[in-house]
Amino acid sequence: MEPCRPLALLAGSLALTSILVALSTDYWFVAIGPHDSSHSGLWPNGDKHPVAGYIRVTQIFNILAALCGLVSVGLLVLSCIPSLSAPGRGPLVSSITAFTAALSIMVAMAVYTGERWSQPQQSQIQTTFSWSFYLGWVSVPLWMSAGGLGLFVHCSATQPGYDTL
Asked: What keywords tag this UniProt record (predicted)?
C-alpha cells in the first residue's frame, strides 16, 4: 500500500508539470511554409484578430484542470504528513480531483484537436501539432494514474474501529 502513495504523488506532479508547461508555451500548432515557419499556442499575442471560441474553451478547461491538479497534488502531499492530513479523506478527495483534472484536460484537448483537425489545409503550408499539444495529452493518463493510485491508497487504508476510540 505504501508504494502507491509516492507513485500517486509522482504521477500527479508530472501531470501538473506537463499541463503547466503546455499552458505556458506557444508550440501547440506549427505551420511550415516554403520560406518560413510559424507556431501558435493558447495565448495569442496580437490584437488584430479576435480569439476563436475553441481557444477560449481550451484555455478555460486547461486552467480548470491545472487548478484541480494543484489541489490533488497538495492533498497528496498533506496525506504524506500524518499530523497535517485529514483522517482518511485526503487520498479520496485527491483522487476525485485528479479524475476531475483528467476529465477537464480531456475535454480541452478534444475540443482543440477537433477544431484544428477540421480546419482546411493549404497546399503550400504543412501544419502539424507540436510538443506543447502533446504534453497536454500526456497529462491525461498521468492524471488518471494519480487518481487510480490515490483511490487504491484510500481503499487499502485501515479504517479505524472501536478499539481506536
From this structure: Cell membrane, Cytolysis, Inflammatory response, Lysosome, Membrane, Transmembrane, Transmembrane helix
